[in-house]
Design brief:
- Chain A has 790 residues and is of the alpha+beta class.
- Helices cover 43% and strands 18% of the residues of chain A.
- In chain A, the strands form six sheets. Chain A has a seven-stranded mixed sheet with strand order 16-28-27-26-17-24-25, with helices on both faces. A six-stranded antiparallel sheet of chain A has the order 8-7-9-15-10-13, with no helix packed on it. A six-stranded antiparallel sheet of chain A has the order 18-23-22-21-20-19.
- In chain A, a hairpin with a 3-residue loop joins strand 19 and strand 20.
- The longest helix of chain A has 34 residues.
- With 58 residues, chain B is mostly helical.
- Classes of the chains: A alpha+beta (790), B mainly alpha (58).
Chain lengths: 790, 58
């Protein structure tokens, strides 16, 4: 069967479609967007990419809070008398059509002066004039064309972060100086005409001196700061020998040109700083579209609707107090704990727990912050303010206070201690030796040793290897926060998994049927009824019967929060909750189920269970050989027995764990000296993710959601976790080989230095040579490693 | 005065001009987004009418 695709969004629309302008649309929403575009001559939108659009969502009243001046003021990047600029995050940005249409917003609304898209950050920057058009109108316009911006509490609270570009400046400066100094030092290296050199060498030398000044005092500044900090806390980090090398190079070169002793090592000096910064730059791979620092603020709305004196008003959520009455509309997030007063709630807690199936609530039930309302409008009474709520309290834990995290000792730090001690003792021994042989040369030898032993190549090994691993992992949809995480991954010996949403997937649920079997006619009838319903459970169940045809039904009636009733010929079908289909024997179980009755005769129920991801069993079996495994779940023990069978014995299974408990589990393991990796997905894992040595957030859609963590893994690559762990171990091995290689260069260099024959030209050749060969070695070997993990 | 001074001054001045241009472009944010401009430059300035554009499609 050839499937019909929606011209706008690309969804298949076989059953029913809206026809307009000889094109098929899956729903009226998509058609409306097309109409807007065609009226404004913007149909080019569909030419850059096929089916680029998104279905516009129902947003009535959702953005009323943008009428408040206070809130608008905080969201604006820039504002003066007649220009306002706002940056909006739009998750749907995904192709060139998106860029095109968003940059042509002024054709839809002439009041918008201009708009610019940053594709990698999925942001659009809109310039407009508040006197002509309000922010709310802009947001509504964007939503109407399927580009609903994501405005969260974080935008409201945090000031705009300044971009730190200092590393690019420093790199640019060092490269600029390095290039010029190299040219200026050539004449003396090649000893062109002796008379000519004698006449002009001072000009060249002083020019080199001035070029190296900003390199030492600006570009290389961080190395001095870091070395000083290291020494103060009694750690000999890699920056100590580097800072020593830079200062000795600079001082000796300056002394040499002042007293006309030689040409100095300015090119080695600037080259050293340039290469080191290049390593830093390479390591600094950032995923602009991801954020690793998110907390609940990124998901919570800025304002909610409060009912006071039977009037609706918008209030910032920080002003919500205990006892207030809130109105939560369809698709809105519940920002605080409270009690449901009226309306039927179906709450999707997938943000929090990873559980895909919405939970039904009746009035009087307690609602927890973080859930998303899915069926109609509800009213609730507030029990606790935002920061006091069950979920948000987690963030008052010390783990989220970054200062408390002890710094990780990297492999480079480990070697640098021994290295520094060795270099210093060689330098002193050689100096003492030369004091007896030829005291004139002693100082020369001392400085030469420090210069040649400057661990440029060692300092480059880790950044290039890890930086490359970061990119390789990134291509496999495993995004790490920074290069250190790769090293931490290599040390992991315990892996802890969350269950719901991590081991199970919320994309597909396993549907089991219990009861009297349905015949084909009944199934046909059931499918036709489900087709008319928009309830998430109906949609899931509907997709189960894909081979069955549908038929027209009559008297369709949906009782919100209870179930559906429909007629076909003389048959009456009821499906929904147990009470709705008059099934009184049903004990309240923990499973989510849809009950079915025909002509008031109870037939059976469909039970929704989360399906385990593919490859979970294989992954656990192979991980079990080298790692301790644990599953920590916030759920009840319902699946304990099943999991005991399913997973290898020796896997710890913990149930009924509150968010704080999960954190404690990790902390206890760490106290036993274990290096833990936590793999979770919801906000309730956030504490454990922050506490563990490596917290990895699993995400079905990396653009939408992930709590604060060290790495984000696309759910489709879940089965590759072991491959990633192994690859990071191999990366550490590569670094170790690099260390051996660079020590060989150091031995050669030290030979020249100790024997007092170190010419600037030797340093000028040896230093770049060692650095470049290390970079070539790590690049080739990590890429080989990369091809293996594909 | 030897011509070498003139040459040195000129070459360094040229280098500095490029260096300043680099700093300026970084500061203006030209390196912040290296992807979008590459797509943007391929868009036509003028909106092509539907009929002509449609025929080339698919």
């Amino acid at each position: 069967m050839k499937s019909t695709q929606c011209y706008h969004c690309g969804d298949s629309c076989d059953d029913k479609y809206v026809k307009f302008d000889e094109k098929q649309f899956c729903c009226n929403g998509c058609k409306t967007v097309y109409e807007i575009f065609s009226e404004n001559d913007l149909t080019c939108y569909y030419d850059f990419q096929e089916n680029p659009g998104a279905v516009p969502t129902e947003i009535q009243g959702k953005y009323d809070f943008l009428e408040q001046e206070e809130i608008v003021k905080k969201l604006l990047d820039f504002s003066d008398a007649n220009t306002q600029i706002v940056t909006l995050y739009i998750p749907h940005i995904h192709c060139s059509s998106c860029i095109w249409v968003l940059e042509n917003l002024h054709k839809l609304k002439p009041e918008i002066s201009s708009s610019q898209v940053n594709f990698t950050k999925k942001q659009v920057r809109v310039t407009f004039n508040l006197e002509n058009i309000s922010l709310k109108e802009i947001v509504l316009l964007l939503s109407a064309i399927g580009y609903e911006p994501y405005i969260s509490l974080e935008d409201y609270e945090g000031g705009k972060k300044a971009v730190d570009r200092s590393l690019i400046y420093k790199l640019g400066l060092a490269g600029f100086a390095f290039g010029n100094v190299m040219f200026l030092s050539f004449p003396e290296y090649f000893e062109v005409d002796g008379f000519w050199i004698e006449k002009y060498k001072n000009v060249f030398r002083w020019l080199m001196f001035f070029f190296s000044l900003p390199v030492v005092f600006y570009a290389g500044k961080d190395y001095f700061v870091s070395a000083f900090k290291g020494l103060r806390s009694k750690i000999l980090n890699i920056d100590v020998p580097i800072a020593l090398g830079i200062s000795v190079l600079f001082i000796r070169s300056t002394v040499e040109i002042i007293f006309d002793l030689g040409t100095g090592f300015f090119d080695s000096l600037t080259g050293l700083v340039f290469f080191l910064l290049l390593g830093k730059f390479f390591q600094q791979k950032t995923y602009n579209f991801l954020s690793f620092e998110r907390d609940y603020k990124s998901y919570f709305p800025i304002a909610v609707t409060r009912i006071r004196n039977s009037k609706e008003e918008n209030v910032p959520i920080y002003d919500v107090e205990k006892g207030d009455r809130l109105l939560i509309r369809n698709e809105e997030l519940i920002p605080v704990d409270g009690i449901l007063i009226n309306g039927n709630a179906a709450i999707d807690y997938s943000f929090v727990t990873g559980e895909a199936v919405p939970v039904e609530k009746k009035s009087g039930d307690k609602l927890f912050a973080g859930g998303k309302q899915l069926s109609g409008v509800i009213e609730m009474e507030v029990l606790a303010s935002v920061s006091q709520s069950y979920l948000t309290q987690l963030w008052s834990n010390d783990v989220f206070n970054k200062e408390n995290k002890s710094p990780f000792k990297t492999i480079t730090d480990t070697i640098s201690k021994n290295f520094t001690i060795a270099v210093l003792s060689i330098a002193i021994l050689a100096t003492v030796y030369w004091l007896f042989i030829d005291s004139n040369k002693a100082l020369n030898v001392f400085t030469a040793v420090l210069i040649i032993a400057c661990p440029c190549a060692i300092a480059l090994a880790a950044p290039f290897t890890l930086g490359n691993m970061l990119r390789i992992f990134g291509k496999q949809k495993f995004y790490l926060k920074n290069a250190t995480v790769v090293e931490q991954l290599a040390k992991i010996d315990t892996v802890i998994f969350d269950k719901t949403g991590t081991l199970t997937t919320n994309k597909e649920s396993k549907i089991l049927y219990e009861g009297e079997a349905l015949n084909l006619v009944e199934e046909k009838f059931l499918k036709s009824t489900l087709r008319a319903s928009n309830h998430p459970l109906s949609r899931t169940l509907y997709n189960k019967f894909h081979k069955i045809e549908t038929q027209p039904i009559t008297n369709y009636k949906e009782v919100v929060g209870k179930g559906i009733e429909a007629n076909f010929d003389t048959t009456n079908l009821k499906l929904g909750s147990a009470s709705f289909v008059n099934n009184n024997d049903e004990k309240s179980t923990l499973d989510t189920a849809v009950h079915i009755s025909f002509n008031d005769v109870y037939k059976g129920k469909y039970i929704f269970k989360n399906a385990y991801r593919k490859g979970v069993k294989q992954l656990f079996n192979s991980l079990n050989k080298n790692y301790n495994l644990a599953v920590v779940s916030g759920d009840n023990e319902g699946e304990k027995e099943y999991l005991q069978h399913f997973l290898p014995s020796g896997t710890d299974l913990l149930f009924n764990q509150k968010p704080e408990n999960k954190l404690d589990v990790v902390a206890n393991l760490q106290k036993q000296g274990k290096k833990t990796a936590m793999i979770g997905d919801g906000l309730n894992d956030a504490g454990a993710l922050a506490q563990s040595d490596v917290g990895i957030a699993l995400s079905e859609n990396i653009n939408v959601f992930s709590p604060a963590c060290d790495g984000i893994l696309d759910a489709s690559k879940f089965y590759k976790i072991e491959t990633f762990l192994k690859a990071s171990k191999k990366a550490i091995k590569i670094i170790k080989y690099c260390f051996i290689l660079s020590l060989c260069y150091n031995v050669i260099g030290l030979y020249f230095a100790v024997t007092g024959q170190l010419m600037p030209v030797i340093a000028a050749i040896l230093m770049p040579l060692s650095s470049i060969s290390i970079v070539v070695f790590t690049t080739i070997s990590t890429n080989l490693l990369g091809t293996k993990i594909k | 005065m030897s011509v070498i001074y003139l040459l040195l001054t000129l070459s360094i001045l040229v280098a500095i001009v490029f260096f300043i241009a680099f700093i300026y472009s970084v500061k203006r944010g030209q390196y912040d987004d290296s992807y979008t401009p590459s797509v943007r430059m391929l868009f036509d300035d003028e909106l092509v009418k539907e009929s002509t554009e449609k025929s080339t499609k698919v």
